[in-house]
Structure to design on (885 residues):
């Protein structure tokens, strides 16, 4: 018998290299770094001080079970920087809490939080357990599907900022979240549909039960009294189904009629309305056919398929909303006295003065008051080269400050910003319907008019021939030809596929992407962050003679703490926050490095060219050899009078990159690598994953040209990318996939976002799209074939309405069942 | 067959009861997260409880 906790040795989760990788987050452990935490009776190595701290907190709180049951690695731990602590404290202020905290009693508070970093169910468990154990927390619930936490606490015993910090301590990020109106209305919509489904299902079961008795009675004979009783009961039980569950069909049909359009709702309404009225008449008159079972079955199946469609849509919307919400959260406001304070971005007003540090996202539209810097505005206009701006220039909210701190005066906030416009754009993209679905709608729409004409003709003909049977025959034609199978064919398949893809970590932002994926002939990969992890890891430290590794690391950390550069981050992760020196007059030299004073001596860290130019020293021969190695990035630390150390950073290939390329090539697709990096680095990665066509040194514009050149030759290009530079290429390609760690921009432009870090999901997306297409074709063929072949039989009066209803329901059921195959 | 005159009203009452239950479930958000709880039930509260459980099972089985 195996119990989850019984085995003493814990297998690392999937996709984690067993040796020399961080036990907590799965990243490689840099050479010579010895950080460890005892978990489950064994020393587990950690890649950085952040992960170590997180793992220690988890173990100390008695939640080691997390490591046993998790199926994905944890997000890399971050250290609690003073900035973060200060930022969270603003959330304790009453005027800010008003935005998102509900006060239930004097001290009893309730709030929703967005949790970042939830990768598997164990994360949900860990967060709930850890938070619930904090003093003052009354209740906490984490929703795995939406990655939201709902929390209730006693404000006199624990502050909201402490809760946010506690979440950060175990390696996740919590952001207060104002459940927008849209959210609430979505929830109301879902719950209304759930109730409609419950009514249709429950009453439907009763009606079916009685109907079966009636059919059996018609076969073997039953007392007229019971027959009549059962009919009356069915009438009463069908009424709520028709009026409550079926209401949306009638209102939609009425809306379409007023606009002189036809949708599926019209024949559905005519069908269920007509069948019900005829049955009610037969019940009152005491003779004739009743079709109550057809009515409830019809309403139940249609309601169910609509409910699943709604669910898929809402989940998609929630993910994007979270994305947009997480961009600018707090801002540093400078008051009249010149003091800095951290405020939530939602509270900014026009005219406020803000301090924007390098690496920060601008929280609102504004104008530069003082300073100059380069901005990355690709999120807003797709232009990926940084734009230099100085005093008086306009800066857009959502652009990223790249180089220098500066002061900004706010000119637009909230819905007036360009960012809000982009958000509206995303929402529009989400209501996008794939071409095939639109075609099915158009066909169905014409079909409906055809059906109504046929029904009229049949009714007229039978009225002339046999007035007894005209209603029965016309109703049979109406029910048998109802194009509901036709209308269900595509949406059920698509929502099943989208739902399944979401579960597999593939967020599809445009449903039309599914159809484009099938025709993909060329797959273009970006290198950094796509085929590789995108986070440089400190690989090696080469200290100069007489300098220890620790000394070099401490000095470098003192300078790099002032920088937001990815390399600085990688270095600080390793350095930890033990005895840190403080550097003064740190200056960021764009494209070079950092210059500053430590203990009264000038220090430099940056590229070889920069350091050599600053100090005028020769590099040792061993270092020069290292610098010629193309795959790695080297940073040099120097003081005014000596070279101190060389730090080597390298980006690691994703574990599943080679397997993915292999699968893509096996399916007959061309695989191309396009990168802005040097040829040596590109060749190294291409060789490691078996790509023959590797193109290096390409600017975003080059990549776009290359993709368009491929398209001109008739290729259908799938672009898989990450990062700000890829945005224009992602939109130029026929269909695009962005990595989950990608910048918000890439996500906005991409058709599909990979939420997990499984690169192989790209191949899965292609396979699922192909399966989706097959099922849609099968469904359409079946639905059209059935409808067309059943019309003549029904018009000839050969099909009784009950048979028509069974045929039609079976036809729809078949289509829905066929589509549910896609959820596996 | 006259028992039907009793059984039918009973079945309608049960129907009403189930309907009320389902409406309550919808209202209290039982259908809001269909994934998390399925995983949650598999997780033990913490390590101490986990070990107790193991030893208990070991003792009986």
């Amino acid at each position: 018998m195996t119990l989850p906790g019984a085995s003493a040795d814990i297998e690392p989760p999937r996709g984690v290299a067993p040796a020399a990788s961080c036990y907590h987050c799965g990243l490689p452990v840099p050479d010579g770094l010895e950080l460890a935490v005892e978990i489950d009776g064994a020393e587990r190595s950690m890649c950085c001080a952040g992960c170590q701290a997180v793992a220690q907190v988890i173990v100390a709180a008695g939640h080691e079970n997390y490591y046993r049951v998790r199926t994905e690695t944890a997000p890399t731990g971050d250290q609690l920087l003073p900035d973060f602590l200060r930022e969270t404290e603003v959330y304790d202020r009453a005027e800010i809490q008003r935005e998102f905290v509900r006060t239930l009693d004097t001290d009893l508070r309730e709030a929703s939080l967005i949790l970042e970093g939830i990768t598997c169910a164990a994360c949900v468990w860990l967060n709930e357990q850890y938070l619930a154990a904090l003093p003052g927390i009354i209740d906490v619930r984490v929703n795995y599907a939406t990655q939201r936490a709902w929390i209730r606490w006693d404000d006199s015993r624990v502050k909201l900022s402490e809760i946010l910090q506690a979440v950060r301590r175990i390696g996740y990020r919590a952001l207060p979240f104002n459940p927008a109106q849209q959210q609430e209305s979505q929830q109301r919509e879902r719950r209304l549909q759930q109730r409609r489904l419950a009514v249709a299902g429950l009453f439907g079961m009763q009606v079916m039960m009685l109907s079966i008795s009636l059919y059996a009675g018609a076969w073997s004979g039953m007392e007229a009294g019971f027959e009549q009783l059962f009919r009356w009961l069915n009438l009463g039980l069908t009424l709520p189904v028709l009026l409550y569950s079926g209401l949306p069909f009638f209102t939609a049909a009425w809306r379409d009629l007023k606009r002189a359009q036809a949708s599926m709702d019209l024949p559905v309404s005519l069908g269920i309305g007509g069948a019900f009225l005829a049955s009610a008449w037969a019940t009152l008159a005491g003779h004739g056919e009743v079709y109550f079972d057809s009515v409830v079955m019809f309403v139940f199946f249609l309601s169910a398929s609509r409910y699943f469609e709604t669910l898929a849509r809402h989940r998609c919307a929630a993910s994007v909303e979270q994305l947009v919400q997480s961009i600018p959260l707090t801002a540093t406001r400078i008051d009249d006295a010149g003091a800095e304070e951290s405020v939530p971005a939602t509270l900014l007003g026009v005219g406020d003065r803000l301090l924007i540090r390098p690496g920060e996202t601008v929280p609102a539209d504004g104008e530069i008051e003082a300073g100059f810097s380069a901005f990355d505005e690709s999120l807003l206009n797709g232009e990926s080269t940084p734009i230099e701006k100085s005093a008086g220039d306009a800066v857009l909210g959502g652009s990223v400050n790249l180089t220098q701190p500066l002061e900004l005066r706010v000119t637009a906030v909230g819905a007036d910003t360009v960012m809000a416009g982009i958000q509206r754009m995303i929402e529009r993209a989400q209501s996008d319907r794939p071409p095939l679905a639109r075609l099915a709608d158009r066909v169905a729409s014409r079909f409906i008019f055809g059906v109504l004409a046929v029904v009229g003709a049949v009714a007229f003909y039978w009225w002339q021939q046999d007035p007894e049977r005209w209603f029965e025959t016309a109703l049979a034609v109406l029910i048998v030809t109802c194009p509901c199978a036709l209308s269900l064919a595509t949406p059920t398949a698509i929502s099943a596929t989208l739902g399944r893809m979401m579960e597999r970590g593939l967020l599809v932002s445009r449903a039309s992407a599914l159809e484009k994926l099938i025709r993909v002939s060329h797959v273009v990969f970006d290198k950094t962050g796509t085929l590789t992890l995108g986070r440089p890891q400190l690989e090696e430290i080469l200290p100069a003679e007489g300098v220890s590794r620790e000394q070099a690391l401490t000095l470098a950390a003192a300078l790099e703490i002032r920088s937001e550069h990815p390399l600085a981050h990688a270095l600080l992760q390793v350095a930890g926050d033990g005895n840190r020196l403080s550097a003064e007059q740190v200056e960021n030299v764009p494209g070079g490095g950092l210059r500053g004073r430590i203990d009264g001596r000038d220090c430099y860290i940056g590229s070889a060219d920069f350091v050599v130019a600053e100090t005028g020293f020769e590099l040792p021969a061993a270092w020069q050899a290292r610098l010629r190695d193309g795959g790695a990035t080297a940073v040099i630390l120097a003081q005014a009078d000596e070279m101190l150390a060389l730090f080597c950073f390298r980006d690691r290939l994703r574990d599943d990159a080679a397997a993915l390329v292999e699968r893509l090539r096996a399916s007959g697709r061309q695989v191309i690598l396009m990168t802005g990096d040097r040829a040596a680095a590109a060749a190294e990665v291409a060789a490691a994953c078996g790509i023959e066509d590797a193109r290096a040194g390409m600017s975003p514009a080059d990549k776009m040209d290359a993709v368009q050149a491929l398209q001109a030759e008739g290729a259908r290009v799938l672009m898989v990318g990450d990062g700000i530079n890829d945005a224009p290429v992602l939109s130029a390609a026929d269909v695009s996939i962005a990595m989950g760690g990608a910048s918000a921009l890439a996500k906005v432009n991409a058709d599909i976002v990979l939420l997990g870090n499984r690169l192989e999901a790209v191949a899965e997306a292609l396979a699922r799209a192909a399966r989706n297409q097959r099922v849609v074709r099968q469904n359409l063929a079946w639905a059209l074939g059935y409808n067309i072949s059943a019309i003549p039989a029904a018009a000839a009066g050969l099909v009784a309405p009950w048979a028509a209803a069974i045929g039609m329901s079976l036809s729809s059921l078949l289509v829905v069942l066929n589509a549910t195959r896609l959820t596996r | 067959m006259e028992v039907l005159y009793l059984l039918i009203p009973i079945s309608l009452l049960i129907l009403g009861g189930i309907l009320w239950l389902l409406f309550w479930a919808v209202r209290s958000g039982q259908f809001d997260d269909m994934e998390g709880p399925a995983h949650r039930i598999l997780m033990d509260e913490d390590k101490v409880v986990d070990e107790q459980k193991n030893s208990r099972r070991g003792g009986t089985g």
